[in-house]
Amino acid sequence: MSDTKDEASGLNIGSLLRLFKSEDFSTWMLISYLYKFRGQGAQDYLCNMLYLENDDDVEFYLPQLCNLLIFHEECTNLHKYLMDKSSSCVHFGLKISWMFAAMTNTSSKSSKRRCNELRETAELASLNCRRDFSPESIENLDINDFPEGDFDSGEDPLIIMAEMKKKRCDYFIHVRNFVERLATIGDELRYVKVKKRKKALKEEIKKLNDYLKSNPAMYIPLSDASDQHQSILRIAVDESIVLNSRDRAPFLIFMEVLDTGVENSVEDMHYIEQCRDLLSEVTADTDQTLSSEPEETEESEDSEESEAIDHDSQNNTALDEESGTSEISGESDNSGNLESPSQQSEGSQDVVSPAHAIESEEGQDSEAESSGEVDGASVDDWVELPHQNLQRQRSKSVIMVRETLNIKKERIRATSPYGKLPGWNLTSVIVKFGDDCRQERLALQLISQFKRIWDEADLPLYLRPYHMLVLAPDACIIETITDAMSIHQLKKDHQKSLLEYFSEKHGGEDAYEFEIARRNFVESLAAYSIVTYILQLKDRHNGNIMVDFNGHIIHIDFGFMLWNSPGSLNWEKSPFKLTQEYVDFMGGVDSGMYAYFSALCLMGFLEVRKHSERIIGLVNLMLETNTKLPCLLGGKQVVKNLKQRFAIGLNDLEMHDHVDGLIKKSLNNWRTSSYDEFQHMTNGIEYQ
Questions:
Q1: Top-confidence residue, 126 or 314
Q2: In terms of Cα–Cα distance, which of 524, 572, 561 is closest to 669?
Q3: Cα–Cα distances in Å, from 230 out to 175, 181, 277, 469?
Q4: Which of 37, 125, 319, 637 could cross-link 87 (Cys pair, CB 3.0–4.6 Å)?
Q5: Quick one: pLDDT band at residue 245, thresholds 50, 70, 90?
Q6: Which residues pair with 555 in a beta bridge?
Q7: Are 352 and 435 in contact (CB under 8 A)?
Q8: DSSP label at 222?
Q9: By the 8 A CB rule, do 502 and 490 touch?
Q10: C-alpha span between 190 and 109 (Å, rounded)
Q11: Of 346, 431, 441, which is closest to residue 631 (Cα–Cα)?
């Protein structure tokens, strides 16, 4: 097959070169041509072009680039490019290393071995830095090439380069161990009794804080390469929450961070010293504050001695640290040493919500506990308050009240020894272990592609893809969605419809703020409706659909799409979810906002259809590399069905009728309502 493609590239080399050099040649086209043309000449040219691409664009397509390299060893130039990218900065080194680690559960032994080899090579490339250590480079070394203040002018150049390498090596290992330790805690908590998990989590967080004190400028490479580097100061121990999941123990943490003013992908790491200098100014106060923090008072049922995490009982295997793993130790000494976790066992294929907002296990009711389901509300809006002068919620052992992110920030900042530092901020993440997160990563990449297409066309369609860092086949860290809750949680807490909730919140339907919220709802509903239909997103109950305080709806949890469905029944055959509650919030089927919704669906569909290859191609590339995801088990039929849903053969007038038909078919579809009713009966998810 590759020979045929090479012949084609040879016959059209002139036109191809003109295309490659044109302004219309995009990063996506570059990636797709890397898959299409495997000849050495084409590969050389295209990989050289990769060096000119924007870091964020390269990072966006890392799953496809890494997949191509795993299953096509002949792509030697791509291998060189990815290793050069790993050596360019710690951020890419970590991302690429974890990208290969996440693919190690492939059924092919040779592919698994290939993944491990590539991961080790990427780590070594990052540890060795970009700079050339050959004798020729040392002779030509200029002290002015290095950041001011890092070294004395009289030092030997060889010593300077060795110091730089050591600094890079130490920082890479410290960040890797810190992030992977977070994932391992999620694994270990599964073996702790539910009532003891919260206390066990807090003990582990305290050990991590000791590590952070000794190793400044740690960060979680969750955001994009061009985003600002945020050094973690400490994790807020009392804000840590173990989320409601019977078989697993996902948890939420809030981190005090320091905005360093540099991008994640910066090559030199002078910000480490800057962070260390800033922290040294408050070290004494910090030590005193942290040591005087009051211990949490547990209720009678939790008053027994904390159940420690038993590392020995989990059969963790000690591995060589150079390969990225080592024996787990639950102890942490004052030196701040933290060992990275062992290789994790294969995770379950069961799908659990990414839990952007869930009740803590201490606050779960008996029905939720028995089902083991994870709620969908925004967890970073919850805060535990003392019981006095507050009315206890029914069937809850912990009182929960709403707190916006800004209020939480100010509350934590006021008592933090770091709160007065310039650039202080508060951020939160959810750590999960035990689920295959790679399908969700693909879903988020596809949704981000929709967003890019509509943003480029300047269409008022709203999508909110969130960041996800997959560390292993069954471990990931997820960005939280702030100031939002699931529609299930809204109904559970307020017993109101969307119309009633936002009308009451903004002082009536005539209020300007209400009209803004309604418009936001319509623009987000239209966007997610198109995405739901084209990607065939399933399991769209109210626990997996959030609404933020500005009225936007946001879909989460993409365990079922393209091919697979809950129970393999394909019950949700409606093109997308369009309930009477949604229509009422828009003002009824005869309202201007409903007409606006219909128009947005048409405009959005027409625009994404122009760029359908950017969606179809992503799926096809993952399929070509034998990626064993549940959503791709249908093979070529998955891509065939996807192409059909874009309705490429219809003209614009026919598309108007087609989209109008999708809306009418979705409106109050009985399969949608029956699925909501089923979820309510089995898992207690509110829908009325």
A1: 126
A2: 572
A3: 12, 19, 16, 16
A4: 125
A5: low
A6: 545
A7: yes
A8: T
A9: no
A10: 29
A11: 441
d(CA 142, CA 155): 11
Q: Is 557 left (phi over 0), alpha (psi -120 to 50) or beta?
A: left
CB neighbour list of residue 420: distance below 8 Å, 6 or more residues apart:
none
Is pLDDT of 256 > 60? yes
What are the pLDDT digits (tens) for 621-662?
888 766 678 898 899 999 999 999 999 999 999 999 999 999
Mean of pLDDT values over 116-141:
70
Residue 155 has pLDDT above 70, yes or no: no
More confident residue, 486 or 294: 486
The CB density around residue 26, as the number of other CB atoms within 10 Å, is 13
Alpha-carbon span 185 to 648, nearest angstrom: 48
* pLDDT at position 232 over 90: yes
Inter-residue contact 133 to 166 (CB < 8 Å): no
| Intra-chain end-to-end CA distance of the chain, in Å | 55
- What CA–CA distance (Å, rounded) separates 191 from 186? 10
Q: In angstroms, rounded to a whole number, what is the distance separating the alpha carbons of residues 241 and 32?
A: 42
Residue 9, pLDDT above cutoff 50: no
Helices (H) and strands (E) in the chain, counts: 26, 11
pLDDT of residue 295: 46
- The neighbour count for residue 674, using CB atoms within 10 Å, is 12
CA pair distance 153, 243, nearest whole angstrom: 53
For residue 607, the tally of other CB atoms under 10 A from its CB is 18
Helix, strand and coil content of the chain, in percent to the nearest 5, comes to 55, 10, 40
- At 515, which helix (H) or strand (E)? helix 512-535
Q: Find the length of the chain.
A: 688
How far is the C-alpha of 20 from the C-alpha of 33, rounded, in Å? 10
* Model confidence, pTM: 0.81
Average pLDDT taken over every residue of the chain: 78
